[in-house]
Every structure is written in structure tokens, then in C-alpha cells.
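note to self — DONT lose this again. spent like an hour looking for the file last time. sequence + predicted structure for the chain T wanted, 207 res
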Amino acid sequence: MSVARRCALLRARIAARVVAVSALCLYAGTAAAHSGGGPGAGFAAGFAHPFGGGDHLLAMVCVGAWGAQLGSPLRLALPTTFPLMMVAGAALALWGLPLPAVEGGVALSVLALGACIAWRWRAPVWAACALVAGFALLHGYAHGRELPVAADPAGYSLGFVLATGLLHVFGIGLGELGLRASPVALRGFGAAVAAVGAAFVVSALRA
């Protein structure tokens, strides 16, 4: 088998895997947006929480994938900015400071980040960081507001931030894989996420 043929088969296999991951993420998007940790919830509940909400899961993966798509320095800057601003948003919620349109903003983040990947928007560093920081503030506020009263706040928060970081890493890997194997499949993933985000936005507007 020729080298060109082998490369083509490899690209096809990787593209199929990217599509499969997209399907899994779309399935996750049908999950409940946010769920509380329950009495006594600590590190384990905080770690599991991001995987139970489709909006948060998709946004986290997209932050990593878009950063990979944009390249250095945003490959690392975006996944670093998000957790930091998410903690700030959670602090605002715990302090009881009002923040309007949180659920709508969280839903919009999925639509916008997916669209950035689909359109391969080459955003300036400041614009990409500002966009991600704004959405991170909303995500952090939404989840900080839901922090169980009886939970161990430090353990729960640590688990939540760690899981978020792992989702970023997965997104970076997905983005790098898509760029090397099939940029079209990566953009298709972004379009699929944006479609789910649009459904989230409609749902938030109806609520």
C-alpha cells in the first residue's frame, strides 16, 4: 500500500473518531444543564458535576479546541483564563451579588464557542481572551449559585476546577487531532456544537 493511501486511510479514521466524539458531546448536550451536589457533597461530587451538564461540558471542550485551532499563545491562554474567571464568577454568586441573564449567557457560550470553531475565527488574543473570560464568569456564577449548602466548599470547588481542566485538555487534544487529520471535521464538530447551543438558547429564552 502506498504512503499516500496509508495517509488517506489514517485521515479518514481520525475524522471518523472526531465525528464520533461530536456525537457523544451532542448526546451529553441532552443532559440536565445543572444539577446540585446534594448534602455532604465534596470533591467527588464536584469532579462529577461538569460531566452531568451538557452546556458546561461542551463549552469546556470548545475552549480547548478553539485554543488549539488558534495556536500559540491562545492554545494555553484560553484554558488558563477560563478556570480563573470561573472561580471569580463562583465567588460573586457565593457573595450574593446579582448577575443578570446567567442561564441565557451560559447557553449562548455554547453557541458562540462552537461557531468560533466552525468559522475558524482568527480572533486577536485580547478578543479571544475577553470572550472566554466573559463566558467563564457566567459559568462560574451559575455553578457557584448551585454549590450545595452542606457540601465541603473547598473539596467541591477543587474537584469541579480539576474536571474543568481535564475537559480543556481533552478539547486541546481534539483540536490538535482535527487540525492534523481533518480540519473540515473539526469545523463540523464546531457547527454541531453551535447547533446544540442554539437549542440551549431557545430553551433558556422560553424558561
